[in-house]
Structures are given as structure tokens and as C-alpha cells.
Design brief:
Elements lengths: L18 E7 L10 E6 L2 H19 L6 H11 L1 E6 L10 H22 L20
Antiparallel strand pairs: 1-2, 1-3
Length: 138
């Protein structure tokens, strides 16, 4: 998440001791009409866990066979779900979805590569085939 863009509390966030999670779509980053509310949480840690889950699921959704972690992160910053917590914590660092996605991209790629190896599939070259040749076969 570009922290400069989401530092003010979102609509509905208050001082009730609850933490709200909102998600912007990186493709429509400055369009508030594209913002979703993901819920309200009793603790900051619960809200943070929800943000982590959203980013990880977004990375998994964007992954394509043969994709590098760098390419996955690039696609995330263009098209991924960008959650943030409101109100902004006063006693903790501001959560950055982009920083978290960059750190998680290698793990997500490794998960898919390990699953492909377990299934006996090649890693592929990003075109949907294991060997980079579409429709290849014997």
C-alpha cells in the first residue's frame, strides 16, 4: 500500500477501540467507489492478520505458472487488493500492504512451485504449460 494515500481514517472508523479493515483495488487506487469494507476487529492484531490474509490471497490469485516473485509483486502493485487498517495506529508502524506483498511474493511462488513438483508437473514458462510448448505431447 502506498502509505501516503491511506493515512487518514476511512469512513466508519472511530475511536471505539475497534479496528476496521478497508481494501482498495490497486487498479483503481484513488477511486473511493471501488473501496470495500472487510470488517471491524476487536484488536489491532486481528485486523493485521486479516490484512495479511487478503494480501496473501491476492498474490495467490495473481500467480501464473513460471512467474517470478518480482513479476508477481509487480502484478500485485498493478492489480492486487490493497488492505489498510483504520484508524491509523498511533503506537505502531503503519501497515504497508505493498511491503508485505513484496516480502510474501517469494513464499507464494515457492508454494506453487512445490505443489507443481509434488504433482510431477514442470514449473513452466508462464504460458500455462509445463515445458513452455502449448499443446505439446507425444
Amino acid at each position: 500500500m502506498n502509505n501516503e494515500l491511506n493515512t487518514s481514517p476511512a469512513p466508519g472508523a472511530g475511536d471505539s477501540g475497534r479496528w476496521s479493515v478497508f481494501t482498495d483495488d490497486n487498479y483503481h487506487l484513488h477511486d473511493a467507489s471501488e473501496r470495500d469494507s472487510e470488517g471491524s476487529f476487536g484488536t489491532y492484531e486481528e485486523a493485521l492478520a486479516e490484512c495479511h490474509r487478503i494480501v496473501t490471497e491476492s498474490l495467490r490469485h495473481l500467480y501464473a505458472p513460471g512467474m517470478t516473485a518480482e513479476r508477481l509483486y509487480e502484478d500485485y502493485t498493478d492489480f492486487g487488493e490493497d488492505p489498510y487498517i483504520a484508524p491509523s495506529p498511533k503506537d505502531r508502524p503503519l501497515f504497508s500492504a505493498w511491503d508485505y506483498a513484496e516480502a510474501r511474493a517469494k513464499d507464494v511462488v515457492a508454494e506453487f512451485e512445490a505443489a507443481a513438483r509434488e504433482k510431477g508437473e514442470g514449473i513452466g514458462r508462464g504460458d500455462g504449460s509445463a515445458d513452455g510448448v502449448k499443446g505439446g505431447g507425444v
